[in-house]
From TrEMBL, chain A:
One of its GO terms (cellular component) is ATP-binding cassette (ABC) transporter complex. This is Sulfate transport system ATP-binding protein. PANTHER family: SPERMIDINE/PUTRESCINE IMPORT ATP-BINDING PROTEIN POTA (PTHR42781), SPERMIDINE_PUTRESCINE IMPORT ATP-BINDING PROTEIN POTA (PTHR42781:SF4). Keywords: ATP-binding, Cell membrane, Membrane, Nucleotide-binding, Sulfate transport, Translocase, Transport. CDD domains: ABC_CysA_sulfate_importer. The keyword Lipid metabolism does not apply. The keyword ATP-binding applies. GO terms for molecular function: ABC-type sulfate transporter activity; ATP binding; ATP hydrolysis activity. Residues 3-237 form the ABC transporter domain. The lineage of its organism: Bacteria, Pseudomonadati, Pseudomonadota, Gammaproteobacteria, Alkalimonas.
TrEMBL record, chain B:
Its main location: membrane. The keyword Transcription regulation does not apply. This is Sulfate transport system permease protein. The keyword Heme does not apply. SUPFAM superfamilies: MetI-like (SSF161098). One of its GO terms (cellular component) is plasma membrane. Residues 76-279 form the ABC transmembrane type-1 domain. It comes from Alkalimonas amylolytica. It is a multi-pass membrane protein. CDD domains: TM_PBP2 (cd06261). InterPro entries: CysW_permease, MetI-like, MetI-like_sf, Sulph_transpt2. The complex is composed of two ATP-binding proteins (CysA), two transmembrane proteins (CysT and CysW) and a solute-binding protein (CysP). It is found in: Cell membrane. It holds the Pfam family BPD_transp_1.
Amino acid sequence: MSIHIEGVNKRFGDFVAVDNVNLAIKTGELTALLGPSGSGKTTLLRIIAGLEHADSGVVRFNSEDITGQHVSERGVGFVFQHYALFKHMTVFENVAYGLTVKPKKLRPSKAEIAKKVHKLLELVQLDWTADRYPSQLSGGQRQRIALARALAVEPKVLLLDEPFGALDAKVRAELRRWLRRLHDEIHVTSVFVTHDQEEALEVADRIVVMNKGRIEQDGTPEQVYDNPANPFVYEFLGNVNLFHARVKASGETKFTSASDDSAQQGDEQDGLAYVRAHEIEVLTSAEPDALPVTLDLITMVGPTARLEVLNQQDGKLVHIELPKEQFKALNLKSGDAAWIKPKYSQVFLGEGI
Amino acid sequence: MTTSNTLPLISAAAVQDTPRATAEPRWVKWTLVGIALTFLTLFLILPLAVVLYGAFEAGMQVWWQAVTEPDALAAIRLTLFVLLIVVPLNAVFGVAIAWAIAKFEFRGKTILISIIDMPFAISPVVVGLIFVILLGSQGWFGPFLAEHDVRIIFAVPGIVIVILFGTLPFVARELIPLMQQQGKEEEEASLTLGASGWKTFWYVTLPNIKWGLIYGVVLCNARAMGEFGAVAIVSGRIRGETNTMPLHIEVLYNEYMFTAAFAVSSLLTGLALVTIVLKSWIEWKDERKQTSSTAR
């Protein structure tokens, strides 16, 4: 089931949550809506589900216009950040709920329901919890039950609102890999909302980056990471440094400082160069095009060395990440002078200058 | 079974360790316990004992006569009749109001919340007077009601109305914070799973607010039985017709029939105790049901 969003708008009072969004999601795809809080990603997901009504615009499943359809008739599976399991029901009853509330004519027999529920519980590897109450399960287990419950009604699309947001880091990493495998198994069109870029990059077939109610970029994880469409996407996907730069028509880039007022020469243009923290080389001696810096703060995070260095040209902080071994080999300590050289950068002309 | 076995061990160890570190000195604990017990004895247990002593002082037979005397029976019947109307109505109102406030955003919500408390703020006597002015024979709607031969003031409907008014906040007050805290995610989950609004209410909302609702109903029930001031104004105190139990007790008291007054009082107290015991029993039963399914 493909999802088509056409010209959807939603305001809450003066706040524009979703600003004229157009988006098409292909059948069987696992799409991430990625953005900071307040970017409208959850609102958009809730509009798709029917839990929120768009002020204007159309939502279609395949070619069918479902904008006016009630949430209970849309056939969506929705997974909430805080699980929203029914506290007073056992796990079995929770998963069976969508089937037991069906009108009599459409309701499967008790035996069929039981069979299906156990099959789903096996799918999420929690068959042994059938008679427990949600309060007796861990967060990760609850979220898997919530997923089984959503899948029980055989939804046309599966919508997940920050599904791993309330879990601790290890469980989150485990569960998202598990979700990826599960999706490869069942292939239901899925959309999940997240503010965690790593999660989106790891799990999704496709990432839609949102900001201030608009879509900033829409593409595969590789496209979005390697070729960010604009500075926002660049900054949102990973730790990034900004350098002033001058770009010649030939494409040659020169890093300058903000205080560099020397006149632009003929074909040069000012811009901001975006360089990721791990795409900077650290040198112990001067080289052409290398920028002189002073080491300020050194933090070892597991296998990675994180450096904060002061750009001597404009006094700004530059964040650098490199493997610990590599840093040790440089034999540098806090306060030492060094030179840095961006290995890869992307320049956005005229941005914020 | 494993969890229920290991958990107490852990908590027992924890309980033994924590007091030394965080507990107040002993005398603080015993002073506080002493104050609480003295207060409870003076203001709860002693009066209760006095009521029971007064009621049975002259013996079982006198007590029985006092509560089966026709006027007393009429008062008991009227009180129960009013309860049967008021409590279910207020339960429904309370749920509806709490639902509206907790789950929807609309203008005038804060005003609505303050209005709900009004019956608590206004003296019951004033409440009685308000309804006399509105519905009495000299009141605003008096002529209209007389024309259609409807009697409200100095009749049972008047009693029902003022008690309904006076006990309106109990269920709503109990449920509003509960429903606000629970949010609407479970209801939303139910809707996405294809349940209609009614089924969602029945299977998801109601079980979640069950205890709050029962508690509100118990309080509402207790207050409805004991409501005096407003009822005294609108009932007209017609013996055997519009006297509820509290009014009947006052009549007996004014006529120096202390034993009879205490006898009916003991009945009223007994009804209150029954409601509280009933509530505890339901709670206990539900807890047992949950734990027994846990220990598998």
